[in-house]
Each structure stands twice: as structure tokens, then as C-alpha cells.
Amino acid sequence: MKIKSKFIILFTSFAIIPLIIGGILIYFINSKINVEDAKNTLINQEKAVKMSLENLESIMEKIGNEMSYSKNTIDYLNDLNTGKLNPTLEASIISEFKRYQSHYGFYENIALISKDGVGILDATGTLAGKDLSNMNYFTEVKKQKRVYVSQIKESITTKKPIFIISEPVLDNSGELLGVIIQTVDLKLLSKQYIANSKIGETGYLYILQNDGTTVAHPKEEEILKKSVADTDFGKKIISTKQGIIQYNYNGVEKLSAYDYNKSLGWIFVATVPMSELTKSNITIVEVLLSIALIGGILSVLLAMFIGKNVSEPIEKISQSMNEIAQGDFTIRVNSKGKDEIANMSNKLNDTLNTIGESLGLVKNASLQLGESASTLSTISEEMVASASEVSCSIQEVSQSAASQAGEISNVVSCLVTLTEEIDIVSKKLAEVGENAKDTEVKAVEGESKIYELINIIVSIKQSYDVVLQKVNGLSTTVFEIGKITDVISNISEQTNLLALNASIEAARTGEHGKGFTVVAEEVRKLAEESSGSSKKIIDLVKSITDETQEVIENSNKVGELLEDQAVTANDTIISFEDIISSMKNVPKSIEETASTLSDTIDENKIVLEKIQMISSAAQDISAASEEISSSSEELLTSSNEVSRMADRVDKDSAELREKTNLFKVE
Which residues form a coiled coil (predicted)? Predict the structure, then answer.
């Protein structure tokens, strides 16, 4: 590429690149500022609507409070609860309802409900006499006796989207007299507070319930729907309830700010397309492109002018350099002026003079170099022959030393392995000794525990004998109770017969024996009851006797089992004594074996140290032989290299003479 073209590219780059970089920075800074401004605008708009509706909520609660504490309302409900009707108060209350409905413009209806949940009065006349006792806005107020804000829903009567604020009417003792409800038409609410709230050209506001249902929207058909709740950004808005989010909806990139009102359970959302935020950036890009185009044209013209003045002298120097490249060092460059190019021409002429003189000296040196190279080649060949003989001898010594060192190394490895295995056996013997001692201790402890077990078994056997004696005594006692019960039963039968005879005799005496008849009848009844009770007691005594006999039999079996356990425990003690006697001899045998192994380990270590010293010496000899062999091989290699280099220098000096003859210096 020519210098003129390079100047054009360089000047154009210096002019345009800063503009491009500056334009990009301005674009991104402006975009960031626009986005921040948009965020602030969205937040302010959203907060303004939120504040308006919070004020509206306060106004509605205040209206409900005024109506619930109104003397007319309380008097009317008191009269109604006592069965009286007051047309004057009724007309006054309805008139007040209609006045509020007309003044605020977003009410669907205002109504008064009785304490039983029946519609009494309302502004539209649609709820009178209707049973509203199951509606949550009535049941919640009746239960909590405080203001309640309902979820949004569809009106039963008008099918319009609504929400209801209900407030209790209480008497002086806090008992419920009735409920004031204010029904808000969400479409009317949207028209007043949402439809006219524009953000930019296409931005808008909307309100969501905390379950994602649309409360208010510029498009009335969106109210009561959950279209936003089904989207990813809608789910995030519902879950976080406050913040700023950027998302894509139906192919449009949007920015939204949102906040939450806890008492209403509503989320206020302000949204605007991102495309509106970047409109000013397009104008900036157009201006920057125009400036870059003008700057580029001016840069090209300036570069062409400067390039022409610079390139012509350089082209003259380039032509002279082509002739010098052909080997003519007698040529000289003529350049007029006092600038850097003229100075470069003069320096080039000085360089040509110096190179010419140097080439003459190189020719003479190449002749001398050729003669020296021949002498060096002869000497190096003699060195190669000597070094080859030394290398062969040293290699034989090195191989023998290496073989000896390898055999000694194998012996050392075997001794090390033997030492390690003896150490392992010694440790295992120590562990066996400890385990034997521990086993002896455990056996002694087991013997002691079995003695304790025998004592416990004997104690249990003695206790069982006492229990068995008591049970036998109980059996005797039960038998005596049976005898007594038989006597009582016989007495009851005799008494019953005597009472019957007394009744017969009393009947014979006529009128004088009536009183005695009554007494005889009562005695007979008592005798029958005594007889029945005696039979029950006999049955119980029989049952106790049978169960007592079963207990005696089981107790005898338990006694036999305890005697068997005592015999088994005694046999176990004898076995433990044999184990303890055997275990006492084990530690002594282990100690003797461990002592012998320890002596063996010490002697093995001495042998290992001697062998290691021999191995180390053999390895040193082998290493020294290898070093000498390596040195002799290096000497041989160096000698060969010197010989080759001498031949090469001789050839290079001849070529150098041929090349220098090509240059023209005189």
C-alpha cells in the first residue's frame, strides 16, 4: 500500500473513530438517563394513582363511619328492631345514600343491611328485602365488628365488576345493629383514575388484586380477568409486590414500576414501552453520522495533499535503493531541502560509503578464514580418534559397576521387606498380648456378674416362695368365704319361706293383719335380693378359686425355671474359671516371643546398614563411571562437531569470497 493511501486511511481513522466512540458513549449515557427518568416517571405516576386511591379508601371509610355513627341510622335500626317503621328517617337515609352516590360518581350502590343480613335500604332500590346473610362482606363484619374490604367480584344484580367496603353499625354496648355497605363500580373507578392517566404516548396504569385479578385497566374488558397473572412478569409482580421490572410482552419490550397497598390488597402498576425511551437516541445517531461524514471527507482531502508532498521524495529514495539492492554501492542519492527526508538521504550516502569500506575488509578476512579452517579440520580428526577409544573403555567399566549396584539394591530391598514384616509380626504380638490381658479382665468381670446373677435368681426364688404361700393362703380364705356365702344363701331361703308363711297368716287375720302383710312382703323382697347377691358372690368366689389355682400352677413352673437357671449359672462359672486359668499363661508366652523378635530386628538392622553402605559405594562407582563415559562421549561429539564446523567454515569462506565479488565498491 502506498504512503498516500496510508495517510488517507490514517487521517480518516483519526477523524471518524473519536466521533464513533463519543457517539456510542453519548448514546448509552442518554439511554441510561432516559431509562432512569422513565423509572422515576413510572414510580411517580404509580404513586400518584396509589395515593389517590388510598385517599379514596380513606374517604369511603370516613363516609361509612359517618353513616354508621349517624343518629338517623342508629335510630332507624333501633325502631326497626322493635317493630316500628319511620318513613321520615327512611327517606332521609336513602337521600343521603343517593347524595354520596351522585357526588363521587364511582358508586354502584350504597345500602343498609339489618343485623340478620337482610337488605333494608339502598340508593338504587335493588337490595331491599334480599337475604345477604351468607355474603362474606356481611359475615366478616358480623364476626369481627370492624371495617371489611372485599375481594373484587361480579355484582349479583348488575353483573358489573365491583368491590365492597362494609362497616358495622353498633349500639352503645357494642352490639351489632346493622351493616353499611358501599359498592364501588370498578369500570367507573377505572374511568376516573386510570383511563386518563397517560405515561408518554402509549404508557398506562393498571391495578391488580394480590391473586392476579385485574382491578382497574384502561381497557374495560380486562377487568376481572387474570391475563397478567398467567405471564412470567405478572407472576414476579404478584410475588414481589413492589419494584421495577423490564420484560417482553407480545413482542414489545416494556418497563414497569409497581407498589402494593396492604389494606386493599391491590398492586398498582405503571408501564411504558422501551421504544419511547430511545426516540431521542435516534436523533443523536443521525447528527453524529452527519458529523462523521463531513469529517471523513475533509480528512481525505487533507491526507491527499500531505501525502503528495511526502511521497515524491520517498519515491526517489526508493528508486536509488533498488539499484543498491542490485549490488551497486557507488550510487548516491540527491535530495533537496532541509527536512527529515533530505537528512535521511544524506545519512544513506554516508551509510553506503561505510558499507563499501567494510566489504573490502570482509574480502581480505574471508581469505584468511579459509586457511585457518583447513588447519582446524586436521586437528579435530585426530581428537575424534582418541576420544572414541577412551569412550569404549569407560563404557565397559560403567556396565560392570551398574550390574553390581543392581544386585546389591535387590538384596537391600529384600532385607527392608523382611524388617518390615518382622515389625508387623512384633506389633501384632503386642496387640495379641493386650487382647489376652483384656480377655482375662473381661472373664473375671463375667465371673463376678454371673455370681451376682445367681444371687438375684436365689432372691427371686425366695420371693416366689413367699408369693406362693400368700396365694395358697388366699385360696383357703376364698374357700372360707364360699362357706359363709352358702350359709347366707340358706338363711335367705329360710327367711323367704318365713315371710311367705307370715303373709299367709296375716291374710287369715283379715283387716288387722294388713300392716303385718306389708312388712312380710318387704322381708320377702330383702330375702330374695340377699339370695341373688349370695349367688353372685358364690360365682365370683368360684372364679377367684379357679384363677388362684392357675396362679399356683404357674408359680410352681416359675420356681422350677429359676432352679434350672441357678444350675446353668453355676456351670457357666466353672467354664469361666477354666478360661481365666488358660489366659494367665498366654501373656508370658507372647512376651518371650516378642523378646526373640526384637533381637532379630536389631541384628537385621545392622546387616541392612552394612549392605546399604556397600550399595551406596557401588552406586557411586557406577555414577562416576557413567559421568566419565558421558564426558568422553561429549568429547567425541564435540570433536566430531569441531571437524564438521571446520569443514563448514572452509566452505562458507569460499562462498563469502564469491558473494563479496558481486558487490561494486570501486
Answer: none
